[in-house]
Write a structure and sequence with these properties.
By secondary structure, the chain is an alpha+beta fold. The protein has a single domain, classed as Alpha-Beta Complex (Nucleoside Triphosphate Pyrophosphohydrolase). The protein contains 6 helices and 11 strands.
Protein backbone atom coordinates (compact mmCIF):
# COMPACT_ATOMS: atom_id res chain seq x y z
CA UNK A 1 0.00 0.00 0.00
CA UNK A 2 2.77 2.42 0.94
CA UNK A 3 4.65 1.53 -2.24
CA UNK A 4 1.59 2.24 -4.40
CA UNK A 5 0.93 5.55 -2.66
CA UNK A 6 4.56 6.52 -3.18
CA UNK A 7 4.25 5.67 -6.86
CA UNK A 8 1.09 7.75 -7.17
CA UNK A 9 2.82 10.69 -5.52
CA UNK A 10 5.81 10.41 -7.84
CA UNK A 11 3.53 10.33 -10.87
CA UNK A 12 1.57 13.37 -9.71
CA UNK A 13 4.73 15.34 -9.05
CA UNK A 14 6.20 14.37 -12.40
CA UNK A 15 3.04 15.56 -14.12
CA UNK A 16 3.31 18.84 -12.24
CA UNK A 17 6.96 19.23 -13.23
CA UNK A 18 6.13 18.72 -16.90
CA UNK A 19 3.24 21.19 -16.74
CA UNK A 20 5.34 23.88 -15.05
CA UNK A 21 8.15 23.44 -17.55
CA UNK A 22 5.62 23.82 -20.35
CA UNK A 23 4.32 26.96 -18.64
CA UNK A 24 7.88 28.24 -18.50
CA UNK A 25 8.36 27.68 -22.24
CA UNK A 26 5.11 29.45 -23.08
CA UNK A 27 5.28 32.39 -20.70
CA UNK A 28 8.87 33.05 -19.76
CA UNK A 29 11.92 34.45 -21.46
CA UNK A 30 14.74 31.96 -20.79
CA UNK A 31 17.43 34.64 -21.07
CA UNK A 32 15.75 37.58 -19.35
CA UNK A 33 18.90 38.72 -17.55
CA UNK A 34 21.11 38.56 -20.67
CA UNK A 35 18.60 40.43 -22.78
CA UNK A 36 18.02 42.92 -20.00
CA UNK A 37 21.65 44.00 -20.24
CA UNK A 38 21.27 44.60 -23.96
CA UNK A 39 17.99 46.49 -23.66
CA UNK A 40 17.91 50.18 -22.76
CA UNK A 41 14.33 50.46 -21.46
CA UNK A 42 13.92 51.20 -17.75
CA UNK A 43 12.17 47.93 -16.93
CA UNK A 44 14.94 45.77 -18.37
CA UNK A 45 17.74 47.84 -16.85
CA UNK A 46 16.13 47.47 -13.43
CA UNK A 47 15.75 43.73 -13.87
CA UNK A 48 19.41 43.36 -14.79
CA UNK A 49 20.59 44.89 -11.51
CA UNK A 50 22.23 42.43 -9.13
CA UNK A 51 22.70 44.89 -6.27
CA UNK A 52 18.95 45.27 -5.79
CA UNK A 53 17.90 41.86 -7.04
CA UNK A 54 16.61 39.09 -4.78
CA UNK A 55 15.08 35.64 -5.21
CA UNK A 56 12.78 33.48 -3.10
CA UNK A 57 12.29 29.73 -3.24
CA UNK A 58 8.75 28.43 -3.50
CA UNK A 59 9.53 24.83 -2.57
CA UNK A 60 6.55 22.53 -3.19
CA UNK A 61 6.06 18.99 -1.97
CA UNK A 62 3.22 16.54 -1.48
CA UNK A 63 1.73 16.18 1.97
CA UNK A 64 0.45 12.96 3.49
CA UNK A 65 -3.00 13.61 2.00
CA UNK A 66 -1.62 14.21 -1.48
CA UNK A 67 -2.05 17.98 -1.29
CA UNK A 68 0.65 20.31 -2.54
CA UNK A 69 2.32 22.23 0.27
CA UNK A 70 4.90 25.00 0.51
CA UNK A 71 7.62 25.74 3.06
CA UNK A 72 7.49 29.07 4.87
CA UNK A 73 9.50 30.71 7.61
CA UNK A 74 8.85 33.14 10.42
CA UNK A 75 11.69 35.63 10.32
CA UNK A 76 13.70 36.15 13.46
CA UNK A 77 12.38 38.81 15.82
CA UNK A 78 15.95 40.11 16.06
CA UNK A 79 16.27 41.08 12.41
CA UNK A 80 16.40 44.79 11.55
CA UNK A 81 13.81 44.55 8.78
CA UNK A 82 10.53 42.62 8.51
CA UNK A 83 11.27 41.00 11.87
CA UNK A 84 8.77 38.35 12.97
CA UNK A 85 7.03 38.30 9.59
CA UNK A 86 6.24 35.20 7.54
CA UNK A 87 8.37 34.85 4.42
CA UNK A 88 9.55 32.44 1.77
CA UNK A 89 13.18 31.32 2.04
CA UNK A 90 15.24 33.78 0.02
CA UNK A 91 17.33 36.89 -0.03
CA UNK A 92 19.46 39.28 -2.04
CA UNK A 93 21.59 38.25 -4.97
CA UNK A 94 25.31 37.79 -4.34
CA UNK A 95 28.08 38.11 -6.91
CA UNK A 96 28.91 34.40 -6.78
CA UNK A 97 25.32 33.34 -7.52
CA UNK A 98 25.07 31.94 -11.03
CA UNK A 99 21.46 32.99 -11.49
CA UNK A 100 18.19 33.58 -9.65
CA UNK A 101 17.74 29.88 -8.94
CA UNK A 102 21.22 29.83 -7.43
CA UNK A 103 20.31 32.73 -5.15
CA UNK A 104 17.08 31.09 -3.99
CA UNK A 105 18.72 27.71 -3.35
CA UNK A 106 21.68 29.23 -1.51
CA UNK A 107 19.41 31.27 0.73
CA UNK A 108 17.18 28.27 1.44
CA UNK A 109 20.20 26.27 2.54
CA UNK A 110 21.41 29.10 4.76
CA UNK A 111 18.02 29.78 6.32
CA UNK A 112 16.36 26.38 6.70
CA UNK A 113 19.09 23.84 5.92
CA UNK A 114 17.57 22.66 2.62
CA UNK A 115 20.21 20.90 0.51
CA UNK A 116 19.99 22.29 -3.06
CA UNK A 117 20.56 18.79 -4.47
CA UNK A 118 17.16 17.74 -3.08
CA UNK A 119 15.25 20.37 -5.05
CA UNK A 120 14.24 20.23 -8.70
CA UNK A 121 13.89 23.81 -9.98
CA UNK A 122 11.19 23.78 -12.64
CA UNK A 123 10.27 27.36 -13.44
CA UNK A 124 10.97 30.99 -12.62
CA UNK A 125 8.09 33.45 -12.54
CA UNK A 126 8.12 37.09 -13.59
CA UNK A 127 10.01 39.38 -11.20
CA UNK A 128 8.13 41.58 -8.75
CA UNK A 129 9.20 45.17 -8.08
CA UNK A 130 8.90 46.56 -4.57
CA UNK A 131 8.44 50.21 -3.68
CA UNK A 132 11.99 50.18 -2.32
CA UNK A 133 13.40 49.36 -5.74
CA UNK A 134 14.19 45.70 -5.09
CA UNK A 135 13.38 43.13 -7.77
CA UNK A 136 12.17 39.86 -6.23
CA UNK A 137 12.21 36.76 -8.43
CA UNK A 138 10.03 33.76 -7.43
CA UNK A 139 11.73 30.43 -8.15
CA UNK A 140 9.51 27.34 -8.07
CA UNK A 141 11.16 24.11 -7.01
CA UNK A 142 9.86 20.61 -6.31
CA UNK A 143 10.99 18.49 -3.37
CA UNK A 144 10.26 14.93 -4.58
CA UNK A 145 10.86 13.29 -1.19
CA UNK A 146 9.63 15.26 1.82
CA UNK A 147 11.29 12.82 4.21
CA UNK A 148 14.71 13.61 2.77
CA UNK A 149 14.58 17.10 4.24
CA UNK A 150 15.12 17.66 7.95
CA UNK A 151 14.51 21.35 8.71
CA UNK A 152 17.43 23.06 10.42
CA UNK A 153 16.57 26.73 11.01
CA UNK A 154 19.33 29.30 11.19
CA UNK A 155 18.31 30.89 14.48
CA UNK A 156 19.98 34.17 13.56
CA UNK A 157 17.51 34.59 10.70
CA UNK A 158 14.59 32.24 11.34
CA UNK A 159 12.38 31.70 14.39
CA UNK A 160 10.28 28.93 12.87
CA UNK A 161 9.81 26.75 9.78
CA UNK A 162 6.37 25.48 8.81
CA UNK A 163 4.44 24.43 5.74
CA UNK A 164 1.01 25.32 4.42
CA UNK A 165 -1.28 23.98 1.68
CA UNK A 166 -0.74 25.89 -1.55
CA UNK A 167 -4.43 25.79 -2.44
CA UNK A 168 -5.35 27.94 0.57
CA UNK A 169 -4.07 30.97 -1.34
CA UNK A 170 -6.88 30.56 -3.86
CA UNK A 171 -9.67 30.29 -1.29
CA UNK A 172 -11.68 33.09 0.27
CA UNK A 173 -11.30 31.54 3.71
CA UNK A 174 -9.28 32.82 6.67
CA UNK A 175 -8.45 35.78 4.46
CA UNK A 176 -8.91 39.49 4.72
CA UNK A 177 -7.74 42.39 2.60
CA UNK A 178 -6.83 46.02 3.17
CA UNK A 179 -7.01 48.70 0.52
CA UNK A 180 -3.86 50.77 0.13
CA UNK A 181 -2.90 53.62 -2.18
CA UNK A 182 0.41 54.57 -3.75
CA UNK A 183 0.97 57.34 -6.29
CA UNK A 184 -2.78 57.61 -6.80
CA UNK A 185 -3.25 53.90 -7.50
CA UNK A 186 -5.41 51.83 -5.17
CA UNK A 187 -4.63 48.18 -4.59
CA UNK A 188 -5.29 45.38 -2.10
CA UNK A 189 -2.95 43.70 0.36
CA UNK A 190 -4.11 40.21 1.32
CA UNK A 191 -3.71 38.60 4.73
CA UNK A 192 -4.09 34.84 5.28
CA UNK A 193 -4.43 33.46 8.81
CA UNK A 194 -2.94 30.03 9.33
CA UNK A 195 -2.24 27.77 12.30
CA UNK A 196 0.41 25.04 12.39
CA UNK A 197 1.38 22.93 15.38
CA UNK A 198 -0.43 25.27 17.73
CA UNK A 199 1.27 28.40 16.38
CA UNK A 200 -0.63 31.13 14.57
CA UNK A 201 0.81 32.86 11.54
CA UNK A 202 -0.24 35.68 9.23
CA UNK A 203 0.92 35.42 5.63
CA UNK A 204 0.55 38.76 3.91
CA UNK A 205 1.80 41.42 1.49
CA UNK A 206 4.47 40.33 -1.01
CA UNK A 207 4.67 36.74 0.27
CA UNK A 208 0.91 36.33 -0.04
CA UNK A 209 0.95 37.90 -3.50
CA UNK A 210 3.64 35.51 -4.72
CA UNK A 211 1.78 32.49 -3.35
CA UNK A 212 -1.53 33.59 -4.89
CA UNK A 213 0.24 33.75 -8.25
CA UNK A 214 2.03 30.41 -7.78
CA UNK A 215 -1.20 28.70 -6.69
CA UNK A 216 -3.00 30.10 -9.75
CA UNK A 217 -0.29 28.78 -12.06
CA UNK A 218 0.02 25.38 -10.39
CA UNK A 219 -3.71 24.72 -9.97
CA UNK A 220 -4.59 26.43 -13.26
CA UNK A 221 -7.36 28.57 -11.83
CA UNK A 222 -7.76 32.13 -10.52
CA UNK A 223 -8.36 32.95 -6.85
CA UNK A 224 -11.93 32.98 -5.52
CA UNK A 225 -11.58 36.66 -4.61
CA UNK A 226 -10.67 39.97 -6.21
CA UNK A 227 -6.90 40.31 -6.16
CA UNK A 228 -6.10 43.86 -7.39
CA UNK A 229 -2.35 43.52 -7.19
CA UNK A 230 -0.19 46.63 -6.72
CA UNK A 231 0.58 47.94 -10.19
CA UNK A 232 4.16 48.76 -9.24
CA UNK A 233 4.80 45.04 -8.72
CA UNK A 234 4.84 44.74 -12.51
CA UNK A 235 7.63 47.30 -12.91
CA UNK A 236 8.40 50.89 -13.68
CA UNK A 237 7.00 50.74 -17.20
CA UNK A 238 3.51 49.61 -16.18
CA UNK A 239 3.39 52.25 -13.43
CA UNK A 240 4.35 54.97 -15.90
CA UNK A 241 1.63 53.76 -18.28
CA UNK A 242 -0.89 53.91 -15.45
CA UNK A 243 0.09 57.48 -14.54
CA UNK A 244 -0.26 58.56 -18.18
CA UNK A 245 -3.82 57.29 -18.48
Amino acid sequence: MDSNNSGDRSERLETLVQRLRLYNERHQNPVTEREAVDSQDSYSVAVSSTKKRAAVLVCLFEGNDGDLRVFLTKRSSNLSSHSGEVALPGGKREENDADDAGTALREAKEEIGLDPSLVNVVTILDPIFTKNGIIVVPVIGILPDRNSFIPAPNTAEVDAIFDAPLEMFLKDENRRAEEREWMGYKYLLHFFDYEAEGNKYVIWALTAGILINVASVVHQCPPAFQERRPKFWSGLESLANHNNT
